[in-house]
Amino acid sequence: MSKNMIEVFGTNVFSDAIMKERLPKDTYKTFKRTIERGEKLTKETAEIIANAMKDWAIQKGATHYTHWFQPMTGKTAEKHDAFLSLTSDGGATMQFSGKELIQGEPDASSFPNGGLRATFEARGYTAWDPTSPAFLKEDSAGVTLCIPTAFYSYTGEALDKKTPLLRSMEALSVQAMRILKLFGNNKSKKVITTVGAEQEYFLVDKKYYQQRKDLIFTGRTLFGALPPKGQEMDDHYFGSIKERIANFMRELDIELWKLGVSAKTKHNEVAPGQHEVAPIFATTNIATDHNQLMMEVIQKVAMRHDLVCLLHEKPFAGVNGSGKHNNWSMATDDGINLLDPGKTPHENAQFLLFLAVIMEAVDEYAPLLRLSAANAGNDHRLGANEAPPAIISMFLGEQLTDIIEQIEAGDLNNSISGGFLDIGVSTLPRLPKDATDRNRTSPFAFTGNRFEFRMCPSSASIAGPNIILNTIVAECLRRVAEELEKADDFTHALKKVVKRLIKDHKKVVFNGDGYSDEWVEEAARRGLPNIKSTVEATSYFDRPEYIEIFERHHIFSKEEVASRKEITYEEYAKSINIEGLTMSQMVNKQIIPACIDYMTSVAESISKIKSVCPAVDVSIQEEIVTNISKLLFDVRVTVAELNKAIDEAKAIDDVEKQAFVYREKVFTAMEKLRKPCDKLEAIVSEDMWPFPTYDELLFRV
Ligand code: ADP
Ligand code: MG
User: What is the pLDDT at residue 649?
Assistant: First the structure.
């Protein structure tokens, strides 16, 4: 197996090593300069690379290529073209030009654009992102060369998630470099953000999945009474992995490794049927591409094992939902992790400045971070039926909190001049990196050499959260850079800045139990926002102070913000609409008929028993019939409420108003309707209930 792993890793990637081997020396060098310095590729170079790429892909069995892009749906998109080209004598050759590598022109009219481009102006372009390697998708249907690309409109607006992500990485690099220069670093050329995304998911048996319309249409169960056993025994987390699942995971690893996705950790998660896979961290851009691939591959491999992977944030009520932990840091191109506290006082001072800046960013732009983690599925987790809460706070751990408190209390004038020793601490003690100092309830936790943003939705792209994270940190770095660049006495100014930032923003630091009710009250006292839903979070998107920073750092134009806001509302409204309709249909066509059947059979049994033995007590049967009939009455009333709410929401033109009505009326009606239905499930005979129960979905895998 170990040999196998090394042999398969990256076999389907047009990697740096392959390029080095296959490209002429100077073409390879030019290409590297493009990646490292953003230099433009010439036509000739592109032609040579395209040719090498094609030869490699064809040798590996590819017949088609596609520009692989990430439209605002959060999924990936591809349009396959054959390498086929016709010759004058009626034959065919396999061709792939530099132009085809660099640019594509898929019809953009069917992707969400939030009003950016009228449908008649359907032109959309894809442009090669050479910083993320091309790869081969291989399955029983064939082999396709995939070229990671950005997707934008005729007028240059980003229509995807990759473009703003690349812009945000660039912005952060520019600002972080200013700070590093002030600290005397003349060696590093750029700062890269690094990300390791831990992916949680559920697996259910395909035969049960196929019998549940809610899972098929919405990815989550809209009904389901809790089985006698849930997750309370704490026996699933890190529990031994069943053979069927282990076989699935083994194949998953191999498929991911082939694609160069460094799947490293896998284990059972808290809820029954829930699992996690995590790769080794990479550059944000590649980590994002890899997470998209990971979600796709998990689903595909699951199918081969007669399993279905649920990526939804809350597939089951009453047990844990799924998230995606976005581990994030910043590193220089020559390998210095800027969130590593370091060993020397100089490194410590730099670390403390970056830390204080992140405190400011997280505190000041909490609504944006919250928004970046919002989707309809996550509304069931954040601040709702499940922790973590919707309040953005930051965990620093006891030791680091103690240090920032000392800095805050320290006397600025009482300094040992000339060094960084006087920033509050001489040297930071080595921070513990083991799991003891972990807080699993914090949405934004420092974990020794990185931050872990734990709110992210399991089904969504991590581009959104990272765009925001990079942008807000870039902005706060910019402010500090402006101030420090002007200072006559750097050391003194540095101390002042760090102290001020800590003082102003330590309210965002919270090391206690984020899942407790006391924290909700305490956070309110501290004035921290508690934004409970996707619709509410979305309403913050285009505040002038946010547009200002998006525009300043060239992340989004005002129009791009407006379009994304509209798409978020639309997407929310559509998913709740589908959920509402599915629920209504399942009630009318499955639950009510099943209940009537059962009730009838019980009623028939009463008359049958009575006809044989009139004196027998049939009060149990009568009670069942009465209870079902009462609950069915509730069902009838609430399903009518739901349908009315859906009609009302559908009729609204304004997307923002519409999304709010979906949240306030449709969603609420759904919650209400579920209650009597789940009670009915507990009464009706198991073999007459119209679809598989939680017992089957969660425990029979
Ligand atoms: P846990 O579940 O204990 O939080 P995991 O090992 O499952 O930890 O995941 C931790 C993730 O953090 C991995 O993807 C790892 O590669 C990533 N990581 C480690 N160092 C960094 C870093 N400097 N920047 C970004 N991610 C990192
Ligand atoms: Mg983990």
Answer: 98
Among 327, 332, 431, 438, name the best residue to mutate to test ligand 1's pocket (greatest count of ligand atoms within 8 A of Cβ): 327
Question: Per the domain annotation, does 425 fall within a domain?
Answer: no
263/289 same-domain check: yes
Q: pLDDT tens digits for 84-113?
A: 989 999 999 999 999 999 998 887 777 787
Residues 313/380, Cβ–Cβ less than 8 Å: yes
Are β-strands 394-395 and 444-446 bridged in parallel, bridged antiparallel, or unpaired?
parallel
Question: Looking at the domain assignment, is residue 517 inside a domain?
Answer: yes
Is the Cβ atom of 323 under 6 angstroms away from ligand 1?
A: no
State how far Cα 497 lies from the chain centre.
33
Does 420 map to a domain?
Answer: no
The yes-or-no verdict on residue 215 having pLDDT over 90 is yes
Q: How many angstroms does the Cα of residue 196 sit away from the middle of ligand 2?
A: 10
Give residue 414's pLDDT band: very low, low, confident or very high (50, 70, 90). Answer: very low
Indicate which atom in ligand 1 lies nearest the CA of residue 267: 7
Instruction: State which of 276, 281, 340, 442 you would mutate to test the pocket of ligand 1, scoring each by most atoms of that ligand within 8 A of its C-beta.
Output: 281
For ligand 1, say whether the CB of 283 is within 6 Å of any of its atoms: no
Domain of residue 92: give its range.
Answer: 2-160
Alpha carbon distance 338, 509 (integer Å): 20
Same domain, 503 and 644: no
Instruction: Tell me which residue of 405, 400, 407 sits closest to 447, measured CA to CA.
Output: 400
**Is the same domain home to 498 and 384?**
yes
Q: 380: pLDDT confidence band, cut at 50, 70 and 90?
A: very high
209 and 89, same domain (yes or no): no
> What is the number of domains present in the chain?
3
Residue 683 identity: I
Residue 452 alpha carbon to ligand 2 centre in Å: 10
Which residue's C-alpha comes closest to atom 17 of ligand 1? 196
**Across residues 517-535, what is the average pLDDT?**
95
Task: Assess contact for 8 and 260: CB atoms under 8 A.
Answer: no
- The CATH number for 670's domain is 1.20.120.1560
Task: Quote the mean pLDDT of the chain.
Answer: 91
